[in-house]
Specification:
This protein is α/β, with parallel strands linked by helices. It has two domains: 154 residues, no CATH class; 126 residues, CBS-domain. The chain contains 13 helices and eleven strands. The strands form three sheets. It has a four-stranded mixed sheet. Strands 5-6-7-8 form a four-stranded mixed sheet. The protein starts with a strand and ends with a helix. The chain binds zinc ion (ZN). The site of zinc ion (ZN) has 5 residues, from helix 2. The site of zinc ion has 5 residues, from helix 2.
Length: 373
């Protein structure tokens, strides 16, 4: 679902970095080194400003990580396991294995992050006071800046638009009050989109009046919130549509397997052209060993079809997504999207009993969302 670079594991949670982070890191480092620090902490040389700018950019990352971790630890302690956190510079996404099932759980998870940021702000401001000297002090400038960053992180995340923390708090309160998570999420998402649009408009106004960097930030953050707000509501719809559905109810169970030793030429004639499937499980000695798709055949030239066996062309089972009939479809979605083939083999007691593709899941989603409207 999320692209990014895996960094390390903390408290059993995989910490990953979104690619966008590198761009934003460079922008932050640069604008702090040449803009913020020379303006608010005058009297240092260029090297000091660069060191201040880029170490701040890195420490912002640490502060965002602490913010997200505090959500995740509360979530884990309430039984909603978080497996992975993906960090952007002004936020992160903690991937919960399932959405909170009561309003009070949601509320507790949502407030943890802003509380952590507020505490960090207090700590950094206090340290800055302690580090203060009569002469300009780079340490003091850095600590004051981190105090400011955490204050901003706290306030930014409290914007009442879902899926920001403030939006989650709003949703939890609305949900607790009305008992209807759907209308609560829709309302919180709409407010989120509204805030985003206001930010984008204000950002463009700033750009046109000459404050290009500040305006660009506002526009960028606006787009980020808008995307997240719309995505957040869609995700809830998906989760509701898929909840409780098992792989065996959705998989296609009329499975035809191809013997692994067959030449591709024969496989095309006797299987692909006869059964009109785009993928087949591959069997050797009655056991599943892999999956062959039209893509595998296409990637080999016509000339190789007569001297290549199915087994040589297929993806071995170790690199294929394997599900059981009892796997929840909602878990299967993530597993299939992490794979490269867009489909999974369903295996029970060593036998292939079905196939499930991303298309099958999308059809169900479409059906359920259309019928619900
Ligand atoms: Zn948060």
């Amino acid at each position: 679902m999320t692209r990014g670079i895996k960094l390390f594991t903390l408290f059993n949670i995989q910490i990953a970095l979104d690619y966008s982070w590198f761009i934003v890191f460079a922008l932050f480092g640069w604008s702090l080194s040449y803009g913020y620090f020379p303006h608010y902490a005058p009297g240092f040389d260029k090297t000091t400003y660069l060191a201040l700018g880029f170490s701040s950019a890195f420490l912002i990352f640490v502060c965002v990580l602490i913010h997200e971790l505090s959500h995740s630890l509360v979530s884990n302690s309430l039984g909603h396991k978080v497996k992975r956190i993906t960090l952007f510079i002004f936020g992160g996404i903690a991937e919960m294995t399932r959405e909170p099932d009561t309003a009070s759980v949601e509320l507790k998870i949502a407030v943890a992050g802003p509380i952590a940021s507020a505490l960090l702000a207090a700590i950094f401001y206090t340290l800055a006071k302690l580090a203060a000297t009569p002469d300009p002090s780079a340490t003091e400038a850095l600590l004051t800046y981190l105090g400011l960053v955490n204050t901003m992180l706290c306030i930014f995340n409290l914007i009442p638009g879902f899926p920001l923390d403030g939006g989650r708090i709003l949703r939890a309160l609305w949900w607790g009050y009305t008992g209807n998570i759907d209308s609560a999420t829709r309302a919180a998402s709409r407010i989120g989109v509204g805030f985003a649009l206001i930010l984008i408009v204000l950002g463009f106004m700033q750009i046109f009046s000459g404050n290009i960097v500040g305006g660009l930030w506002a526009v960028l953050i606006g787009f980020f919130i808008q995307r997240a707000a719309e995505g957040g509501y869609r995700q809830l719809q998906y989760q509701q549509a898929l909840s409780g559905v098992l792989v065996r109810e959705l998989m296609s169970s009329t499975v035809v397997s191809i013997p692994g030793e067959l030449k591709l030429e024969r496989a095309i004639e006797q299987y692909f052209l006869v059964h009109h499937h785009v993928s087949f499980p591959v069997i050797v000695d009655g056991k599943p060993v892999g999956l062959i798709t039209l893509g595998h055949i296409r990637s080999l030239g016509h000339g190789q079809w007569s001297n290549t066996t199915v087994r040589e062309a297929m993806d071995p089972l170790t690199s294929v997504t394997v599900l059981t009939p009892e796997t929840k479809v909602i878990d299967a979605v993530g597993m299939i999207s992490r794979g490269t083939l867009g489909r999974a083999v369903v295996i029970k007691e060593g036998r292939v009993v079905g196939m499930l593709s991303r298309g099958d899941i999308m059809r169900l989603l479409e059906l359920k969302t259309v019928l619900k409207e």
